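This section describes the prediction task in plain terms. A model, or a person checking by hand, is given the sequence of a single protein chain and must write out its three-dimensional structure as a string of tokens. No templates, partner chains or ligands are provided. The sample shown here is typical of the held-out split.
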Amino acid sequence: MKVLMVSTSYPEDAKDWRGRFISDLVAALARKKEVGLELWAPPGDLPDNVMATTTPNDIRWLSRLSQLGGIANVLKNRPMSSPFVVIQLLARLARSYRSLPVDVCHVNWLQNALPLWGTSTPALISVLGSDFGLLRLPGMASLLRAVFSQRRVILAPNAEWMRPELEHLFGDVAEIYPIVFGVDDAWFSVKRQTVDGAQNWLAVSRLTKKKIGNLFDWGEGLFGEDRHLHLFGPMQERIAVPQWVQYHAATNPAQLLQTWFPKASGLITLSRHDEGRPQVMLEAMAAGLPVIASDLPAHRDIVQHMKNGWLAASPASLKQGIDWLEDEGHNREMGISAREYTKASIGSWDDCADRYVAAYHKLLKSEL
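The expected answer:
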């Protein structure tokens, strides 16, 4: 079957942090013999049997959008120019949807489904946590309902907790079919080292107020000579990083795999962002790292308190979680449990690709 995948995020190369989960999914789908995959996305390294459908003009435009931090960052930080950028994006996608005869459109992010209007191609739409911000805009759900009613649609949130709201908004015009992303096999192979000396805690996140959340406020006084907090991620909003935080700017999977995850005590995320199912948390858990996370629906979906990680709802519970997980026995037990959970409940990207291929067949079968 011919599948057109659409994404506004894709890594330029192996060191680029942007859209890593899209490139992992593309590589896994490319290994499925029954899928002929075409990709409309920013330029980057593609498997040999995946065809890029972006025009040279699209490539230049998407490269510029990536340099600006993606469409979400433009909408947030460039309000004067964002309407023009949105119109440009929708127009380019509309041309692509109409010029390429395919069996299924696989659309990442809800806003990229709007230009499907006026076509009838079956669509699988991956829904992430950030999409819920879009759905809060007046009239957006009605616009999407109009688009969905023109075709067979599967809405595929990447976490079960999203299902009730999507059922409420779209259950009569689309099938809600959660599909969890996978984890690259390399993360399951990480061999953790015995902590000798200072404890090293990691935070891997884009630097925005909502993504950082309470990390700087609650972490004040918890880190020093014997306990370090290493923060990795691109600065996407102007945020003052405290002196007690060791900030390393953007990173890439190779650095985390080879240098940081093996010697870390655990991962901390106190995000207040509209999270779906944070990929870095799954990768850390697959690597056998305990995770301390804020008490959000997205985090409760994968972190079971004191079973495979720790949920922190206050400064006191953050301190308690750090102290508890710095016990070698607790840390090892939580790490093993986290890895086992990820293997059993999430699996590899090949497992994820199988789930998407089954959904494609489901869409096409409904067309008979």
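For orientation: The domain at 185-345 is CATH 3.40.50.2000 (Rossmann fold).
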